[in-house]
Design brief:
alpha+beta; Nucleotidyltransferase, domain 5; 8-stranded mixed sheet; 5-stranded mixed sheet; globular
Length: 450
Amino acid sequence: MTTPLSLGIDFGTTNTVVALADARGPAHLVRFPAPNTLPSGGVEDASGSELFAFRSCLSFHAGDRPNDRTIAAGPWAIEAYVEDPAETRFIQSFKSFAASESFTETQVVGRRYRFEDLLSTFLLKLRAYADAAMTDLPSRVIVGRPVTFAGAAPSEPLALSRYETAFARMGFSEILYAYEPVGAAFFFARELDHDATVLVGDFGGGTSDFSIIRFEREAGEIRAIPLGRSGVGVAGDAFDYRIIDHLVSPALGKGSSYLSFGKTLPIPNRYYSAFARWDQLALMRASRDMREIRALVREAVEPEKIARLVETLDENYGYQLYRSVSRLKEALSAEEAAEFRFEAGSISLAGMVRRTTFERWIAPELAQIEAAVDAALANAGLAADGVDRIFLTGGSSLVPAVRAIFHRRFDPARIETGAELESIASGLALMGRERDLSRWTTRAGPGDTE
């Protein structure tokens, strides 16, 4: 087997996809053998025995000896966590902290991990699970990066410095970076048979990114002229939390009251903030809040609701809950109404949800995404009719309310979707064939590396 020309990595908040490109032909997705029980750990192929979308998560299981740990990644990490949550530290969506100056390190089983340590650990485990597919790697890797990193005050140089350290540990001698929507645009541009101005929208778990690029064919090669870009740190994960906050948390006591010294007081909202990420729910069991929550069962005006909250936390129902949320979101992408059903232990929550209701819940995030689309057009100095094609990719691009943002601005005949999870990684890998990679990629700046 010859060494491929380049490798593309789409390290996402929710999933990571890897693709390899040879000198000719399509890019090849790296596939992973699915674990015996695949707990929503990735997207399977038609046979069901392999997956290509590898969940961006890690688990650390404490061993019998001090500082001993068993590390797993992707679906195997989820499997380990679900089997033994009390003894397993689970970390997901850690891409969200890449550009955060406030995140310096975290303690895991007696060892300190910086962001670059988490990322390199994840990448090395991913490579090990891929086995033969990633044995003989090229010297060049093209890494996707968001237009705007997630966080309140993201530091792009810090994020790229951390990326550079982690990817260098894999042994790559040439590390290049390309905006994630540009990777998707390159994948899409292969099908263009004429010059065109293309807007690409990439909707991940943590960010929604937009790039506007002019593609022109020149002597048989595609020439790209970047015109504008924009991004916002909200996407599918925020949609999930809105469902939890409106549909589930009230049934677990949010918005209800308790009695204290003859006064009626509201149940603290902070108890429900952990539902933004299901893996954080297990951490509440040993917290001060958990002791308060247990005491509230006796004092609550509606004790049955707080009892449900206690059971959800004690029995670690977070994963089942978020699977129920994902199923509802997927169903509402196809139907005007769908049933939400969450059953675990003695808890049974069910009810019909209309798509219009869901869209009202996520209205704040939709407004931010809409503003980012307008910002990309303004950055490019274009009106909507100046865009010839629109390519939408990423899982949340399937949400009808997200698609409606583009249908209101552009001719629907110009809008295309497809390869929602594989387009970025494939496009990144295919870039490696270009004679002038500077058209598409950048290196970490002088001040961006350690």
